[in-house]
C-alpha cells in the first residue's frame, strides 16, 4: 500500500509573528520555518503504518519555493521513501494546492492521501476537502484515530459534539487532527541519511495544473492590545460594572 503525505513550509509555531510596517503581510525573511505541525502528525502516522507493515511506501509531497526542500528533508528523516517537490515561488491558494494533489494522486495512485487538517499560517482547512472532491474519493477529516483494514479505513474524527466514527473505502483522503499521535524526535543519523534520499522536482506546468484565482490581501494588522482588568469588592459592584458595559 502506498501512502502520499503532504507537508507544508510554515513559520515555526514558536516564533513571535511580526507585521510588516506597511501592513502588507507578516515578516518572513530571517524567520525560522518548520514543517506545519499538523502535517508532522500526518507524516508520523504514515511512518507508524509502514513500521507496522500496513504501508509499503510513503511519499512526501510539498508545494513551494526552493527553501521548502528543508521540510521535505525532515519528512525523509522521519523515514519517508521518496519526496516530490512542486516548485513555485508564487503564493499557493488551497484550490491550487488541491489541483496539484489531484494530479499527483492520479500519477502515484496511493491508497491513502494523508495530510494535516490545516496549516497554521492561513488556517484555511480547505485543501483536504477540495482534494477529495476533485478526486471523487471518500474523505475523513479531523482524524484522531485511524485503523486500516485492507480496502477500508475506520476513522474516529473530532466534531463539535464529541467523536464520530466513519468507515470509508480506499483510496481516500484523511486529514490529521492534533490528538492522532505525538511525532517522534528526529535523530542525527536519520537526518544525515535523509540527505541521500531522492527528491523529485516538478512544477505546476509540468503537472498541467491551472492556478486558482488569487486572493488579494488588503491589509494585515496585529490584534488590539488587551486592556488591563479591574478588581471589584463585591458581587453587587461586579453586576454594576457588567451592566455599565452592556453585558447584563
Give a description of the structure.
The chain is an alpha/beta fold. The chain has a single domain, classed as Rossmann fold, CATH 3.40.50.620. Helices cover 29% and strands 27% of the residues. It contains seven helices and eleven strands. The strands form two sheets. It has a nine-stranded mixed β-sheet with strand order 9-8-7-10-6-1-4-5-11, with helices on both faces. Strands 2-3 form a two-stranded antiparallel sheet. Helix 2 crosses helix 5 and helix 3 packs across helix 4. The longest helix has 16 residues. Pfam families: ETF. GO terms for molecular function: electron transfer activity. Keywords: Electron transport, Transport. InterPro entries: ETF_a/b_N, ETF_b, ETF_beta_N, Rossmann-like_a/b/a_fold. Heterodimer of an alpha and a beta subunit.
